[in-house]
Amino acid sequence: MQAGEFGIILGAELARALQVVPGDKVTLIAPQGLVTPAAILPRVKQFRIVGIFEVGMFEYDSSLALIHMSDAQRLYRMDERVSGVRLKLDDLFAAPRVARELLGLLEADVSVSDWTRSHANFFRAVAIEKNMMFLILLLIVAVAAFNIVSALVMAVTDKQADIAILRTLGASPASIMQIFIVQGALIGVIGLALGVFGGVALALNIDVVVPAIEHVLGTQFLAKDVYYISELPSDLQWPDVAIISAVSFVLTLLATLYPSWRAARVNPAEALRYE
After folding, report:
1. pLDDT by residue for the chain (275 residues), tens digit each?
2. DSSP string for residues in the chain
3. Per-domain residue ranges for the chain?
4. pTM of the full predicted structure?
């Protein structure tokens, strides 16, 4: 796109809404009008579409158009001046700090904004969602731990006679308790290993799994005109995986304590009375 050619690049959704393709022409209307004795006439200019872009974010794809800076200066009659400057940083998380530093260096009538302020509500919602997902995962693990408790309690009830025989053969309450702790821990470790393996595999292949499910169901989970993003992103955080795995294993061990304690308190005489 060269200066003076008055070419324009449209977002994919905007081009689809206007029903135009590269090579067609569109008319831009500047907000500043021409003052004439008869009336205020809008300033218009015809541009030729030279390209279409798609970034995957509906807000930009449906409302953003790009033209050459020289053509924009002629359209808005700004001579060599510009209305704003956009900086691209190597570290995107340094944007708030750079914005604060620039605000102290520039004049008072200049405003500075960064990407965290442009969509502050969106990023705040993402942070809240991350905390809630962590809480939901802990609740799921807690439910699984209660299942281990119920399974071990039923095992203790079913094996009372066997426990009583072991006690009469000289097994101590501590050794009986250890047997059921090991059994519960083994169940937890196997379940934890399968869960971590399945979760990591899904996280690494989410860009393949979700489109396949959408194709089978004939629907789109993240509609472009509703959500900020149209694809489900996945960023595997190994520290989070380690924390959830450690908490799950600790809950598994805690879940084995009560059934093991009940097994250790089995009275051999009472258990064998009706055997």
Report:
1. 677 788 899 999 899 989 999 989 998 888 776 666 666 777 788 899 999 998 877 878 888 899 988 888 888 888 888 888 888 888 888 888 898 888 888 776 788 888 888 777 777 877 888 888 888 887 888 888 888 888 888 888 888 888 888 888 888 888 988 988 888 888 888 988 998 999 899 988 888 888 888 888 888 777 766 676 667 778 888 888 888 888 888 888 888 888 888 888 887 777 666 56
2. --TTS-EEEEEHHHHHHHT--TT-EEEEEEEEEEE-SS-EEEEEEEEEEEEEE--S-HHHHTT-EEE-HHHHHHHHT-TT--S------SSGGGHHHHHHHHHHHS-TT-----HHHHTHHHHHHHHHHHHHHHHHHHHHHHHHHHHHHHHHHHHHHHTHHHHHHHHHTT--HHHHHHHHHHHHHHHHHHHHHHHHHHHHHHHHTHHHHHHHHHHHHT--SS-TTTSS-SS------HHHHHHHHHHHHHHHHHHHHHHHHHHHT--HHHHTTT-
3. 1-79, 87-118, 120-271
4. 0.61
